Amino acid sequence: MIIAIDGPAAAGKGTLAARLAAHFRLPYLDTGLLYRAVGKRIADRGLDPGDPAASAAEARALDPDELANPTLRGHDAGELASRIAVHPEVREALLAFQRDFAHRPGGAVLDGRDIGSTVAPDADVKIFVTASAEVRARRRTDELRAKGREVDFARILDEIRGRDARDAGRATAPLLAAHDAVILDTSTLDADQVFAAAVAIIETARRGPPVSPDSVLG
Q: What is the pTM of this model?
């Protein structure tokens, strides 16, 4: 069973995907870490993230062991990931890795921005996790403040809106819900409610007819 979890930044898709993988005993890949790792390689080498050739070269040289680096979860790594992810050459370099992971025996859970539409269009279940930009900015602000960082909500909101625009506007594999994805709006839901809704979607898909792509939960 392949489960594709897509959505914009700070919508809660990573937390949900990891929890679903544990629940269904499936391997899990946070595909965003691939782009964060490439972004870190670019930064560490003093290269220009706007250079598609240099970014693609670093993507091809990526060692899977680099995904365990805890600094990849940081804010700066996320911003770099968004900048290099606009390059079609980078996305092509990382596509094979993601597809191989998705199609391992027994299936897998993957989260990202183009899993259901590009990486695994044949996924058994596709869920597009979203929330308003304001809710996502508040979540990110609270998360960073809980870690002791001084951050400004307005700046985080601007960054999220900018990142949404970049992700949705890129020419290759833009951020969008696959035509057969179920939309799960988490704006008014807590983590347990989001998890319960996602499990219900998956169990319904496993029992019989595909979940209607017109379904909207939240």
A: 0.79
